[in-house]
Amino acid sequence: MGIDPGLRKTGFSVIKAEKYLKVLQYGVIEGKGTALSERIYTIYISLKEILEKFRPEVLSIEKVFYGKNVRTLMNLSELRGAILVLFKVHSIPVFEYTPREIKQSLTGAGSAAKVQVAYMVNKITGIHESIPQDASDAIAAGICYLNRNYKNDR
Fold it and tell me: N or C terminus of the chain: which is more exposed, having fewer CB within 10 Å?
């Protein structure tokens, strides 16, 4: 499972990789509510339902390491903490990658533009429709994990 955390929009993806990569589901969870706790709760419950439906083996999540606004960075860190706890409670290993690592894994360039990453996500997955940006980033996080860790011994 790949996640691109965001307080207003959290992208998620569920990917199956055997002989071929298959995206089972992707989407965007809207952080509803005005209070930070409400938004985190909404995202947490939605991810919990997805986790329980698909039972992923691992989580690949984008690291937060830089922010222009300290308050936003702190709030986003609180969301990430809730997500990490959710996956820990379900004994699912978590792998964290910086945006640069994810871009590098998909495009070969750590400074690639979001449009380049989205293009590669469509190309790799074979999805021909427009994917919401946050969902595309979540798929990219999942592909990054596979590119770095997947063993062809299944």
Answer: C
Question: Which tokens go with 111?
Answer: 């400074």
Give the number of other CB atoms < 10 A from CB of residue 55.
11
Catalytic residue of the set 18, 134, 137, 153: 134
Burial class of residue 136 (count of CB atoms within 10 Å of its CB; 0-12, 13-18, 19+): buried
Number of domains forming the structure of the chain: 1
pTM of the predicted protein model: 0.92
Taking only the tens of pLDDT, the chain with its 154 residues reads 999 999 999 999 999 998 889 999 999 999 888 899 999 999 999 999 999 999 999 999 999 866 677 888 899 999 999 999 999 999 999 999 999 999 999 998 888 998 999 999 999 999 999 999 999 999 999 999 999 987 544 4
Residue 76 sits in a domain whose CATH number is 3.30.420.10
d(CA 26, CA 76): 21
Active-site option among 52, 57, 62, 78 = 62
**154 found inside a domain:** no
Is residue 137 among the annotated active site residues? no
Is the residue at 53 inside a domain? yes
